[in-house]
Design goal:
Layout: H1 2-18, H2 23-32, H3 52-67, H4 71-76, H5 81-92, E1 97-104, E2 111-122, E3 125-139, E4 146-148, E5 165-170, E6 176-179, H6 195-205, E7 215-220, E8 229-235, E9 240-243, H7 248-258, E10 264-269, E11 276-282, H8 289-292, H9 302-311, E12 326-329, E13 332-335, H10 348-354, H11 357-361, H12 371-380, H13 403-409, H14 419-431, H15 457-473, H16 477-480, E14 487-494, E15 503-510, E16 513-519, H17 529-539
Parallel strand pairs: 6-9
Antiparallel strand pairs: 1-2, 2-3, 3-4, 5-7, 7-8, 10-11, 10-16, 12-13, 14-15, 15-16
């Protein structure tokens, strides 16, 4: 009778749950399940953010399956098991990681930090592995279950791409000891921005530099042509020495400068040789946007546009370039930056120095569809494929019709550049000769460099005069103040779709150093990108 009475009471309680007892009912089931937070909730489809109990339960179960080398169970606890399964499987197989111990930290809402300690083994050799990561628990869209929000970085923070994986094997290329132009060793630890570049140099020149490959755990990137990212050395290789064109002084200044602005990049080159002196990025994704980025360059493109006007007899530095409040071309209306006073009697030099958009747009009728394309290609080397020594995007100025013809003159439309290409444009404007940028000497492998006709001496003289005026009394004057020697500059602000704040561009030269910078969502050119360029020019090469 007592046993039956107890069963009856429990039955009444569960009936009460169906009737809406809610919080108390869940507490009872929690007790029945041994105090396991979230165990009852796992059986009920819910909406809204995961509860603390669900976060604790699903992260605990995920960690347990991961430690036990049970990738199928761990993957099933994520919201993308199709992607999670192969990576978690490779963790124990191709990455050869064993003895996994995971220690969770204190959760912050639905995010749980944790540390991983394990061992990586290969051919009888082993090394300890330790790193920190984090995961976030979300509500499954179709199931309502609490699940791990899948990102490869959960498994290791160095995994950026969705199809990146971990591999432990004999290295594809021997390690390198990269040295700067003065023979000093260049390392990722000293210059973090150079990490992707050093990986790319190793992949291409490791064997040529005379090193011997070791065994490493690496991130193998899915993107075609991407170099592996080394994470842990199991068996030391022998590094070969690889000369670069980098300047330690300029690189140090560039690294320090970009840290002031998120999502920023800067490049410096030597105009007399085309040698890359510095390249630095401050990005959350670790991407080398300075060399590989593709973005509208805004008014820095007016260097090329002004050269096209001069070379085709449209106007000259001291010739007319009226600056009206607005200009319409093929039904699209263009405006100037707010606060810029119109001047119908302005010269090209004045409109260039004040960065008047309408003055350039007004001359769109005088150009053919491919005039700017040809000027960029033949005068500045933008169009041919460059062979710098590492992968680069080498700029694009397509022969686009319609409103894009006018937009291209002010660095909008379909024009795409990055700090490397704009630094080269400035170097060419300063010297008149296009010298394809390089980061390792051409003599190292005899690769073919891109060539271009360059600019006539008269065009160079006028461009330098206009850029000097911009640097001394125009939009770049405040940023360039205090820099001695031969100086010139051009500011740029590029509007981007959906962003309230424009990208900040700036390019300039001082003696035999030319530099360009981009700060995403940085505003006017002199606001953010300008100080980066000035810092590098001040350091010299």
């Amino acid at each position: 009778m007592r046993k039956g009475a107890k069963a009856a009471v429990v039955g009444v309680v569960f009936a009460g749950m169906v009737g809406g007892a809610g919080y108390g009912a869940f507490n009872l089931v929690d007790a029945v399940n041994g105090g396991d937070p979230g165990a009852a909730e796992a059986e009920v489809r819910k909406s809204g953010p995961p509860t603390d109990g669900e976060v604790k339960r699903v992260s605990r179960d995920f960690f347990a399956a991961w430690e036990e080398n049970d990738p199928a169970t761990a993957a099933a606890l994520t919201n993308n098991s199709a992607k999670a399964g192969p990576l978690l499987t490779s963790y124990g197989e191709s990455a050869r990681i064993t003895g996994v111990k995971i220690t969770p930290g204190t959760a912050s809402g639905a995010t749980v930090p944790f540390t991983v300690r394990a061992t990586v083994s290969y051919d009888g050799k082993s090394k300890p592995l330790s790193y920190a990561s984090r995961l976030t628990v979300v509500r499954g869209v179709t199931t309502g279950k609490a699940l791990i929000d899948w990102r490869p970085a959960v498994v290791h923070p160095a995994l950026k791409g969705m199809d990146d994986t971990l591999v432990t094997a004999e290295a594809k290329a021997p390690p390198i000891e990269a040295v700067d132009r003065d023979g000093g060793v260049v390392t990722k630890e000293k210059y973090p921005s150079l990490s992707p570049i050093l990986d790319a140099l190793r992949a291409k020149y490791g064997e040529k530099a005379g090193g011997v490959a070791g065994v490493e755990m690496v991130v193998r990137h899915a993107e075609e042509g991407s170099a592996d990212t080394p994470l842990l050395t199991i068996v030391e290789g022998k590094a070969g020495k690889l000369p670069t064109t980098l300047s330690a002084r300029a690189q140090a200044a560039a690294e320090k400068a970009v840290m002031k602005y998120p999502q920023s990049s800067v490049v410096a080159v030597r105009p007399s040789t085309g040698e890359v002196l510095a390249v630095a990025n401050n990005r959350t994704d670790g991407w080398n946007a300075a060399f590989l980025g593709q973005a509208a360059p805004g008014s820095t493109m007016k260097i090329v546009s002004a050269a096209a006007f001069i070379d085709h007899g449209i106007t000259t530095a001291n010739g007319p370039a009226p600056c009206p409040p607005e200009a319409t071309w093929q039904s699209q209306t263009f405006h100037n930056l707010r606060g810029l006073d119109p001047n119908e009697k302005a010269t090209l030099s004045e409109s260039f120095a004040r960065s008047c958009n309408t003055a350039f747009v007004k001359y769109a009728d005088d150009l053919k569809v491919d005039t700017l394309t040809a000027e960029a290609r033949d005068g500045f080397g933008i169009g041919p494929v460059w062979n710098t020594g590492v992968p680069t995007f080498d700029g694009s100025v397509p022969a686009s019709g319609g409103p894009d013809t006018a937009a291209a003159l002010i660095g909008q439309g379909q024009v795409q550049m990055n700090p490397l290409t704009m630094a080269s444009v400035t170097a060419t404007a300063m010297t008149g000769a296009f010298r394809q940028p390089v980061i390792v000497p051409q003599s190292l492998d005899g690769r073919e460099l891109a060539k271009a006709r360059g600019l006539p001496p008269g065009t160079v003289q006028q461009l330098r005069s206009m850029m000097n005026r911009t640097a001394t009394s125009g939009t770049a004057a405040q940023v360039m103040a205090g820099l001695g020697g031969r100086i010139g500059a051009k500011t740029g602000s590029a509007e981007t779709d959906g962003n309230a704040t424009s990208n900040s561009w700036f390019t300039g030269y001082r003696d035999d150093v030319a530099a360009a910078a981009l700060v995403q969502d940085g505003g006017h050119g002199s606001d953010a990108a300008g100080p980066l360029v000035a810092a590098v020019l001040r350091a010299g090469g």
